[in-house]
Structures are given as C-alpha cells and as structure tokens.
Design goal:
The complex is a heterodimer of chains A (116) and B (117). Chain A has 116 residues and is mainly β. Chain A has strands spanning 5-7, 10-13, 19-24, 31-38, 42-50, 53-57, 64-68, 74-78, 87-94, 105-107, 111-115. In chain A, the strands form two sheets. In chain A, strands 2, 4, 5, 6, 9, 10 and 11 form a seven-stranded mixed beta sheet that branches. The N and C termini of chain A lie far apart (30 Å). In chain B, strand 8 (64-69) and strand 9 (74-79) form a beta hairpin. Chain B has strands at 3-5, 10-14, 19-21, 24-26, 33-39, 46-52, 59-61, 64-69, 74-79, 88-99, 102-107, 111-116. Helices cover 0% and strands 57% of the residues of chain B. Classes of the chains: A mainly beta (116), B mainly beta (117). Chains A and B meet through strand 4, strand 5, strand 9 and strand 10 of A and strand 5, strand 6, strand 10 and strand 11 of B.
Chain lengths: 116, 117
C-alpha cells in the first residue's frame, strides 16, 4: 500500500456521461497530482494542487476539472466523456508538508476508466 | 521544454541475462530530479529511484543499478541477472519546477521489458 488511495479502481460509463475520480493523498502530503495514461499519449500530467490551490496545469481538457478539499483529498471530474477519454488515471502526492521539488512522488494504484 | 526519451520501446531477453534500459533527458534547469518507475502488469506505478542533478554517483540496489551521466544527459538503468518477475514497463521521468511550488513529472514513453524463462 503506497499510502495514496484512489477510488474507484474501475469505472465503465457511456459517452456523454460525467464521472468523478477520488484521491486521498499520503498522510502529511499537501500536493496532489493527476496523471492520465493512455495508449497513444503515454503518461501525461494533468494538474497539480497544493493545499487546496491549483499550482500547475498540464494538458488538461476543458471538459475536465479538479479540486482539492480542506481535508486534502482531491477529485477529478470528467464530463461529456468521449471514447478517447478511456485511460488509466493516476493520482500522486508529494511533499511531506513541503513543496520541495524532488521530495518524491507516491502514486496511487490508479482508476481505470472505460468509456463505451 | 523538458523532454525524456526512452528509445527502446520493447526489450526481450532470456532470464539471467543483464539488460540496460536507456534514458536521455533534456532540460534547461540546473536543479532537477530524475526518476525510474516500474509498472508491472497489475498497473500500479512503483517507485524505484530518485536522483538529483548534483549527485552523479552511480547507485546499486541489489540487482538494480543506475548510471547517471550529466555530460550525456543520460540516466540508464541496468538489471543484472534478470528474472521473470522483472517483466514490466519501465518509465524514466524528469521533474520540472515551474516556480512557486508548481511541479510535475515529465515521463518518457516507457520501455516494455519481457524476461523469458
């Protein structure tokens, strides 16, 4: 157990629908990151939150949004889903309370999203 | 922009052979971190090593070793006496610091390693 918890592990939904992926970071970590792993794009950074605030944004579609709550858990919302959104979505946390780069990123086991 | 290149898409070897996975990176930062992750068939990303840009000492952990050379911007990973359980996709990654706490990892495309019995 890495200490980063992602739910659900698997999700199957239809095109046009909306889903929410949830992530609880490792205890003490203030930064949460979302990554998407698809067959054609590889592992892509989506977004980073630090202590509730957005800090970095990657190639995240406008149909996707995220937030980090006061208890530090984060949710990634995917709407108007398309077949191409099918992917493995990872959450990672870092920092052990700091934003020091390279402190180490711990990944959750991922949520496998299948859009049919 | 930062970039990580893993030129070897797939490698297949027979058990007990040594195998080296290549990783070449590009960055303008003077301070950066390099990582290797393992993704077994079960799908999770397993952290293997983190190396900062100021530490060029090679590292060995059991059958695993890493060779970091700033002069060639490479951070290669060698598995000695490979085992079937080493079969996985291996990712090299580079940390990018966008300032003010903004951070992300830039991943290579991964190398699928198959160890045949």
């Amino acid at each position: 157990d890495s200490g980063v918890t992602q739910t659900p592990k698997h999700l199957i939904t239809a095109t046009g629908q909306r889903v929410t992926l949830r992530c609880s970071p490792r205890s003490g970590d203030l930064s949460v990151y979302w990554y998407q792993q698809s067959l054609d794009q590889g592992l892509q950074f989506l977004i980073q939150y630090y202590n509730g605030e957005e800090r970095a944004k990657g190639n995240i579609l406008e149909r996707f949004s995220a937030q980090q709550f006061p208890d530090l858990h984060s949710e990634l919302n995917l709407s108007s889903l398309e077949l191409g959104d099918s992917a493995l979505y990872f959450c990672a946390s870092s920092g052990q309370g700091s934003t020091k780069i390279g402190d180490g990123y711990t990944f959750g086991s991922g949520t496998r999203l299948t859009v049919v | 922009a930062q970039k990580v290149t893993q030129a070897q898409t797939e490698i297949s070897v027979v058990e007990k052979e040594d195998v080296t996975l290549d990783c070449v990176y590009e960055t303008r930062d003077t301070t950066y971190y390099l990582f290797w992750y393992k993704q077994p068939p079960s799908g999770e990303l397993v952290f293997l090593i983190r190396r900062n840009s100021f530490d060029e000492q090679n590292e060995i952990s059991g059958r695993y070793s890493w060779n970091f050379q700033k002069s060639t911007s490479s951070f290669n990973f060698t598995i000695t006496a490979s085992q079937v359980v080493d079969s996985a996709v291996y990712f090299c990654a580079l940390s990018e610091d966008g300032g003010q706490g903004a951070q992300k990892l830039v991943f290579g495309q991964g190398t699928r390693l198959t160890i045949n019995p």
